Amino acid sequence: MGLKLRVDGKEIPLNEFVEKVVGGSIVGAVTSLRGIKEDWEKIEIEISK
Q: Which of the residues 3, 29, 40, 49 has an alpha carbon 20 to 30 A from that of 23?
């Protein structure tokens, strides 16, 4: 699994533990939603304030 974090356009490096925890949480939440196919390829999330 690949995970990239960007804040205001700057990429923030993630260690393996954080990548697994955050990535796994996002994948678990998204794949539990109705209408999401098991063979998904890419999940994109954008958060603005």
A: 49
Q: Looking at the predicted structure, is the pLDDT value of residue 1 above 90?
A: no
Q: Structure tokens of 6? A: 């960007």
Tokens of 4: 């990239």
Estimate the share of the chain in helix, then strand, then coil, as percent rounded to the nearest 5: 35, 10, 55
State both tokens at 46.
Answer: 């954008």
pTM: 0.79
The CA distance from 14 to 46, in Å, is 18
First vs last C-alpha separation in the chain: 27
